[in-house]
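Tutorial, part two.
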Amino acid sequence: MSAPTRPVHGRGAQSGAVPTRFGLATREADGDWLDAREDIDGPGPKLRTEVTIETPRTIVSFNQSPDIPFDRSINAYRGCEHGCIYCFARPTHAYHDLSPGLDFETRLFAKRNAAQLLRQTLAKPGYKPAPIAMGTNTDPYQPIEARFRITREILEVAIECRHPVTITTKSARVVRDIDLLRELAALGLVAVGISVTSLDPRLSGLLEPRASAPARRLDALEQLVAAGVPAHVSVAPVIPAVTDAFMEAILQEAAARGVTSASWIVMRLPHEVAPLVREWLATHFPDRADKVMNIVRSIRGGKDNDPSFFTRMKPQGTWAELFRARFRIATRRLGMNAARLELDCSGFRRPAADGQLSLL
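Running the prediction step on this input gives:
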């Protein structure tokens, strides 16, 4: 995939890579003027975000993966306007015959009936509570949450039913729901993780153009801690030779704000993400593009990505060991070795089928 002649400003992906893994047709130039409109008319207007209302039949996804610490999750949205170029969820847009590139961050889906569907799931006689992870595929606090407030509705159901949830986000918008988070925290029902990739706002603007700036994410962590909400910082993803230099400084800044729990994840490049990242590197960091990908392959068994259970989340090799040692030394020095928080499932109150709480 060749780099475009000029960067796509305000977006992470630099092209609309067409999905081909599912035998989907690819559009070929047919002589229409649209095929050359930029050459004829010059650059067009900025890409605008489109949101489609989706009405799924279920909202809680269950998994049996041995590599992740949760067995159920909710994604209130499909696609993510943050535009993080490295997002491992980008390939999911291919199922809709949409590009994992620009479509993933400009053509979004909102699941307006998510809270209703959650109540239906929790009302099932055989349902057993366990923490529901939010923010596993797309960010629950991406910009369109300000309009749709689906994540807030889900948190309201969690309070009503005394059901534990975890949240992962790159947005300072999470503090808009600090009233609900404080209430959940008092009941032992929530933990919030905020990912910080770098401390350089310019670099962040290239990597994740519509996510909150690093300083705002750190401020959000401080506000969560002050409100008594268990807060966690994730140095994620670590991108070799691009963001890894910020690891210790991110941990230092988070610790100064009272955060005592931390983790790190190295970049993963499944399916179409690898060529998108190559294109991004060629556009923004041509001087080190080969170096970055050589390191990535060195920690993924010689490939761009390792999709195998048990190893996909465990990078190997010299570089991986270096990152692991740096993280371990820094967290020990900063006192960020808090044990994993266990959320309370004992107070769960099953709603009735009509969405009302049961009296029993």
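The domain at 52-266 is CATH 3.20.20.70 (TIM Barrel). In part three we will examine how such features are distributed along the chain.
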